[in-house]
Amino acid sequence: MFYLLYFIIIMLIPLWAQSKVKNAYAKYSRVPSSTYRRGAEVAREILNANGLSHVGVEEQSGYLSDHYDPRTKTVRLSSENYHGQSIAAAAIAAHECGHAIQDDQGYAFLRFRHALVPVANFGSSLSWVLIMIGILIHLSGMLLLGIIFMAAAVLFQVITLPVELNASSRAMDQVVSLGLIRNVEERETRQVLNAAALTYVAAAAVAVLELLRLILVYTGMRRND
User: Fold this and answer.
1) Which of 43, 39, 46 shows the shortest CA–CA distance to 85?
2) Which residues are catalytic?
3) I need a labelling partner for 205 at 20 to 30 A (CA). Which of 83, 105, 154, 197 fits?
């Protein structure tokens, strides 16, 4: 019964976070900003104001596919946010520019996350294979190795939190100081950014809970050896 409840909880946490994002985005993508700037224009103005005229702004297909690519130094905005003049479009464009500013300034957590990418990718792809083998054949050493690989992927999720929260903080500072939104729109802009941050909080929480559960499985296996 306990494990059933646990698995229901870890499935519901990300679903709840995703629903908050979708609801906030759906609501504020219908609310035009008072400056009527498109998301692409918001991004361009923030980047230029921070000496990042070399960073490109491109349209990206897909729903909420917005991201910053540090390899090509490009802010990519989904079509709706690239062309949209809504508060949601401005908030998301500013958030991705926050990552570009982090990259330019050598933000420590961002650099650490970039360094973890190959380790996290390797760990996430291999960890569950080792974990399942360790559990099925009751081999605690194999399980421990899988947990170690999984810990690298979990660390990546945890490090992502300050990176995303800092990008949102920078985004708010930029849209306010540059007059890209009015004072009365700060609350709505912050709601969009906070809702987006919930997805990363949920992902990190689920990852940490799973890691702790597997550590308990390992300690139980060791006691029975």
Assistant:
1) 39
2) 96
3) 105
